[in-house]
Each structure stands twice: as structure tokens, then as C-alpha cells.
Design brief:
The protein has about 220 residues and is an alpha/beta fold. It is about 35% helix and about 20% strand. It has a five-stranded parallel sheet with strand order 2-1-6-5-7. The protein has a two-stranded antiparallel sheet with strand order 3-4. A two-stranded antiparallel sheet has the order 8-9. Bound molecules: adenine. The site of adenine has 12 residues, from β5.
């Protein structure tokens, strides 16, 4: 898989890919992530990538020219499955969407900034708009990092114990069951006997029941 992230703040996105599962996935060659500085595609002397909004109003708008130059240059080199724009008014990211994205080959993620991009970018270049939740971030970079994290960990081989990704919360539409580790007792607080029983089938049933109970209690909307 290849992910090209177009951003005005490439440095902000360096760290998320330099640790843990994402770094390992990159090192193993499972995914290639490229941080592309949008300013490199600006033809202005000052390398500007934004301008005042037509019709007035506060806030700057990302201009179409550098974005078109950048996306066209990338598309000239390979085909892309999706050109994603991070925006609070996009479709809200969920596990199903991440699962689907993890099966694709080439993605572009354009990070929104300021008041957003010129609408013509969305109309003519973007194939999918994704929000990571109903709140407004200062820019799309952290949203892009969240999308990449949720997608990359699903690529086979990214997580050493592959069943681990499948037992995550949401993966089967339920929240994950509670987990415990040693010591078996702390301050008189005991680990449920079932988990110490060594009976795998019963443990799996118990975990499923716990998942159902947690989901009913905390996220009943998931069961509707
Ligand atoms: N940019 C600003 N807020 C955002 C959000 N909630 N999701 C995705 N991109 C954003």
C-alpha cells in the first residue's frame, strides 16, 4: 500500500510514522507513506497556498492551483483508488471504512487547512471526504494521522499477533471485552475466575458475553 499525504505542515506528520506499529509496517515494506509539502507545488514567489475568500468573510481558503499541480503530478505516476480530503463535514470515520481502505493500493490524503479548500478541488479531485468526529481541529493533519493509524494496523503483517486486530473494539460491531494481566490479585481486587480457568471455549463465551454487556451499557447504538 502507498499513502501520499499532501500537507502544508509535513513536519507535524513525521512523528506518528516513526513509532511502534506504523513504523514497523513501513520498515517491513507493507506500506509506504510520503509526506508531500503542498508549498513545493505553489508557483508563487512566496510559495503561498491560500488566498482571501471570494465574497468576503474571515479566514483564508486553500487555492486550487498548487493542489491541482500536486495531485496531477501524483496521478501521472500511478493510479489512485481514492483521493481523500480530511474535513469536519466529511463522512465520519468508522471501523468498516478503515477495513475497506486497508484493502486498497494507492491513496492520496489531502489535509484541509484554514477555512478549507476551494470548492472546485472537492468537486473535481476529491473522491472521498472523511471526518474523524464532530469537532473541529486546527487542520487535517491529525485527522490524516488517525486515518492512517487505523488503516495501516489492519494490513496483514502489521500486527505481530494478527488475531489481535480482529478482536479490537468495533471489529465485530461490539466493544472489546475487559482484559487483565498479572498479578491475579491486587489490593484484594481479583481477576475474574473464568480467565484463570484454562478452559478456552468457556473463556471465549465469557468474553463474548462481556462484549455484549459492555456494548449494551456504553454504546447501545451499535446494537441497533
Ligand atoms: N479538519 C478539521 N476538523 C476535522 C475533523 N473533525 N475531521 C477531519 N478533518 C478535520
Amino acid at each position: 500500500m502507498r499513502i501520499d499525504i499532501i500537507t502544508v505542515l509535513p513536519q507535524l506528520l513525521e512523528s506518528p510514522f516513526q513509532h511502534s506499529i506504523l513504523q514497523r509496517a513501513i520498515d517491513k515494506g507493507l506500506v509506504e507513506v510520503n509526506l508531500i509539502n503542498l508549498r513545493d507545488y505553489s508557483t508563487h514567489k512566496q510559495k503561498s497556498v491560500d488566498d482571501y475568500a471570494f465574497g468576503g468573510g474571515a479566514g483564508m481558503v486553500m487555492t486550487i492551483e498548487p493542489i491541482a499541480n500536486c495531485i496531477n503530478a501524483l496521478k501521472g505516476q500511478r493510479n489512485y483508488d481514492e483521493v481523500i480530503y480530511t474535513s469536519p463535514d466529511g463522512e465520519v470515520l468508522n471501523q468498516k471504512m478503515s477495513n475497506h481502505l486497508s484493502t486498497l493500493t494507492n491513496l492520496i490524503i489531502l489535509c484541509g487547512h484554514y477555512k478549507g479548500v476551494d470548492q472546485r478541488v472537492r468537486d473535481h479531485f476529491i473522491t472521498k471526504e472523511i471526518s474523524i468526529g464532530d469537532y473541529v481541529l486546527s487542520g487535517g493533519e491529525l485527522a490524516a494521522a488517525v486515518i492512517c493509524d487505523s488503516v495501516i494496523r489492519l494490513i496483514p503483517g502489521a500486527i505481530s499477533d494478527e488475531t489481535s486486530a480482529l478482536t479490537d473494539s468495533f471489529q465485530d460491531g461490539l466493544l472489546a471485552p475487559p482484559v487483565y494481566t498479572r498479578p491475579a490479585e491486587f489490593n484484594g481486587w481479583k481477576v475474574p475466575d473464568m480467565l484463570l480457568s484454562g478452559h478456552n471455549a468457556n473463556i471465549e463465551n465469557w468474553r463474548h458475553e462481556q462484549s455484549m454487556e459492555r456494548t449494551k451499557l456504553l454504546r447501545p447504538d451499535l446494537l441497533e
